[in-house]
Amino acid sequence: MSNEIITYRSSGVDIDAGNEAVSRMKAHIRSTFNPNVLADVGSFGGMFSLAGISAYEHPVLVSSIDGVGTKLKIAIAMNKHDTVGQDIVNHCINDILVQGARPLFFLDYFATGKLSPTVAEELVKGIATACREAGCVLIGGETAEMPGIYSEADYDLAGCIVGIVERSRIVDGSAVQAGDSVVGLASNGIHTNGFSLVRRVLVDTDGGAFSLQDTPSCLTQTLGEELLSVHRCYAPAVLPLLNEFDIHGMAHLTGGGFYDNIPRILPADCSVIIDRRSWVVPPIFQLVQDLGNVPEPEMYRTLNMGIGFVLIVPPDQAPLLVHRLNTAGEHAYIIGNVNRGVHEVTIV
């Protein structure tokens, strides 16, 4: 046996760095708190009071969990981490928005090979920013230093959200019927899905055509800046309209794109036809398709192609819904319609 003294730090885990990271995070986390929060930062469990829940006759909690995926490789290479913090919150909020829920609180999970308090703080700053903008509390999380699982600079980021909806107001797609219109809301670029394909085609360190500091002729910013564009949150624009319009279904266009996400909210006897000419596909998608020689169906199944969220409504309500969304700062379009037939999406 060696006489070497082995400590947790010499094994790769620095408790002091963890404490510093938490100290740096506290102000950002507390900035999201509201009177429903009953435990301070550092408690073993986050506590959220349901005071005021009497406003609901039959309240239903809606939850979701997700990660940022390999977009993190871009954030690490660019040494810019706040935007992926916003991504994970907005992604999760959109997932429960689909069922008509508004967010209550969010928890994050951050795991890394070697903890940098600066990186951890930047991530949490981004998470807190997105939570504040959506009226959501950052109520807790976990920071894990895991040498041997991750290399020193690498990390993973995931999040869990809990929201609430009145049972009678749940949007589940069961009301969708032939003749309905499909309204699309513009994305902010790639968002957080399809980055394994995008990196392979575009990023030189993965075999692609450009460095992250290059500005391809079709873009107005560097490739790295374009790819780190924040995943849009649609809740501020959509939630106020749920009681004003007869919204039959909603879908968040993430992994699976048009072909896999829209059918999740369609009755078995309904199909959707999407008119790809009804909106302008942002240049970043055309760049991926052209340089990667990616088949068009693959593009619409892997990426959002400029549409991040869809709503299905009666055709007579669609024009006014589009107007109201655009007035709220969205870029909304009528992009298709529902027909009776095979349970699928067709893009024409």
* Order of helical and strand elements: HEHHEHEEEHHHEHEHHEHEE
Tally of contiguous helical segments: 11
- Major β-sheet profile: 6 strands, mixed
- SS content category: alpha+beta
Rg from Cα: 22 Å
Strand coverage percent: 15-25%
Low-confidence stretches: none
Count of DSSP strands: 10
Helix content: 25-40%
The end-to-end span amounts to: 71 Å
Mean pLDDT: 95
Tertiary shape: globular
Looking across the biggest beta sheet, what order are the strands in? Answer: 6-8-5-9-7-10
Folded structure, characterized:
With 348 residues, this protein is an alpha+beta fold. It contains 11 helices and 10 strands. The protein has helices at residues 15-30, 71-78, 82-97, 117-134, 195-202, 223-227, 235-238, 257-261, 283-292, 296-302, 318-327; strands at residues 59-67, 102-112, 137-145, 155-166, 181-186, 249-252, 270-274, 307-313, 332-340, 345-347. It has a 6-stranded mixed β-sheet. A 4-stranded mixed β-sheet has the order 1-4-2-3, with helices on one face. Helix 4 (117-134) links the parallel strand 2 (102-112) and strand 3. Helix 1 (15-30) packs parallel to helix 4 and helix 5 crosses helix 9 (283-292). The longest helix has 18 residues, at 117-134. The model has no long low-confidence stretch (mean pLDDT 95).
Strand and helix map with partners:
Elements (H helix, E strand, L loop, with lengths): L14 H16 L28 E9 L3 H8 L3 H16 L4 E11 L4 H18 L2 E9 L9 E12 L14 E6 L8 H8 L20 H5 L7 H4 L10 E4 L4 H5 L8 E5 L8 H10 L3 H7 L4 E7 L4 H10 L4 E9 L4 E3 L1
Parallel strand pairs: 2-3, 7-10
Antiparallel strand pairs: 1-4, 2-4, 5-8, 5-9, 6-8, 7-9
Helix pairs in contact: 1-4, 3-4, 5-9
